[in-house]
Amino acid sequence: MTSTSELPTTEISPAPAQAALSETAKSTVSEPITTEPVTPELTAAERKKAKSRAANRAAVELLSETYPQTFSFAQPRPLKIGIQEDLVADGKLSQTKIKRGLASYVRAFGYLKSQTDAAPRINLLGEAEGAVTADEAAHAITKLPPPRKPRPSAKKRPTQAHNKPKQNTQPKGHKAEAKIEKAPSPFDGLNEGQRMASKLDLLLNKNKH
Questions:
Q1: Please, are residues 59 and 104 in contact by the beta-carbon 8 Å criterion?
Q2: What is the pLDDT of residues 180-205, one digit of tens each?
């Protein structure tokens, strides 16, 4: 009988376990990592427009800060003809800032709405100098967006049933009177004796039948 100590022993090689782990690690590394979609960047044209709008806004704000009596976002007033030359001659701002700021200011809807017929124009001191003509006012209106159409009101129910002409009906009294009319009596025009004789003849004739 062979003892248990004499049985051959077999060792389990760690290679298969290590190979399995290495394959798992490889598959984990090779799987793509999902990320949130990245929003596309602005195009060159869009960046240029945004930059230009920001520069225009800054130029208008600079005009308003330098000449608050003349330029106002809240209450724009018509500017005198040739105010650009006055701004350049005043020398407080560069010509580039003046041109950019003026071009943006006069295109604003608030400024266009201020261009009414005979409205006074103002200079750099905020004083009246000239007035808006009828042609200038009409031209400013063409630059404004068209007014919005009013929303249609709720549809009214047809009133034909209420407006039907009433039928001409005669009073009930007339109809009753028409029905009550008696047929002419055969005894009309006879005296009392003749009526009695006629009635007797009728009775006798009825009895014969």
A1: yes
A2: 556 566 666 666 777 777 777 777 76
